[in-house]
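Record passed on underneath.
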Amino acid sequence: MLKSLFKLLSVSLLFIYTSASGQLAQRLDQAFNALSADSQAKYATIGLVVLDAATGKQIYGRNENLGLATASTLKVITSATAFSLLGKDFRYQTTLAYSGSIAPDGVLHGDLVIVGGGDPTLGSWRYGETKENQLLSLWVRAIREAGIKSINGKVIGDDSLWGSSSLPEGWIWQDIGNYYGAYPSALSWRENQFDLHLRSGSRSGSQVTLLKTVPDMPYLNIVNELKTGPAGSGDNAYAFLPPLSDIAYLRGTWAAGISKKGISAALPDPAFEAAYRLQDSLKRLGISSTAEPTTARRLVAEKKSQPTITAKLATVSSPALSEIIYWFNKKSINLYGEHLIRTLAWKANKEATTRNGIREELNFWGAKGIDKNALNIVDGSGLSPGTRVTPAAMANILYQVQRESWYTEFLKSLPINNGMQLKSGSISDVQAYAGYYTAGNGKKYIIVININNYSGSKISGKLFRVLNVLK
């Protein structure tokens, strides 16, 4: 009798669950169809998948197996892969060393060398231990404690660890040169960006004034072609500054009366910038050098030999990977993603290229049952419009990571969007969200929604109308 009652209860609960899921799927379908019929979506492709987070069962899906440009939602896959293969406590290390010898009178007959270890946070203002002035002070102190009073040589930024490859494949010219398109380097510095303070002209079409750069960039020639845009037209200013160049072009418009101070650009040579700042700091303190700062990459290009390290002066460690990923997702820092993807290759003893890092990523998820053909990935951040991932594959990864020991740290890194823990992503004509939502009744969902090639301006609110069905 008890067996029969238990069986009846189980069947009843299953019916209730199935019925509730079916009703939810119907409401999602109605909301999806309304979005599809919107004029902004007339020529767009929309993908949506909603999973039961407890079971992984698909509650609703439309175009879930189409490969779509992900924008920054790709960062959830990069993060999950880095946590899995590197560990949440992984740290990068950067070493200050010197070549040659120190004479009794304090003259270093050799070079100071900053040996890059792939740290994307070196000099970053986001962490107490990584700030630029703090690191420079630490290095100056180590140099003084070694008895160095002057340098018969130069400061070298050693960016050789990851070879000469720099830009990820698929990045576009309009992005390169701007802070969000800063490229990875084995010796990155201050998140590979600097600021340009601007002042709009008195009327639309008049010249925009470049007030200053922060910090001062005396080794760059900045050609300002910016024009004042109509009031309310916003920030449409771009820096065109390719890697290793010393000429930057500022193009586009800067609205009349805009409240922003300016824009941020990408450093053309982060390793040089790090070497320049250390040598400049030493000069200000009376520790002179006889030659200009340079980098390992420049020495190779000039067919000059790289110095042999004699001794190490100081080693600094990055914040733990869990802290890096927190900011990576919260503020969508593309640079971090490109460092992480190369680190996957480097730590697998492969040449530290983006492509090799992606191979490690695809092999990892392939072994976990994800079809590698559903992950057409070309970078680590999603900035490339060439990256294509199916919503179903991304949702499956989000489902699997819930079992991992680092899941709490991963979840904490996801921003809140529309009252849900969703990583957002946007590039030209692409808007996407991916993550988790726990409804008021305790039901938890995994969500991936993505629209490619939509028309007009912002469309987030219309995507949220679909997701609000889950509330």
Summary: The first strand starts at residue 45 and ends at 52.
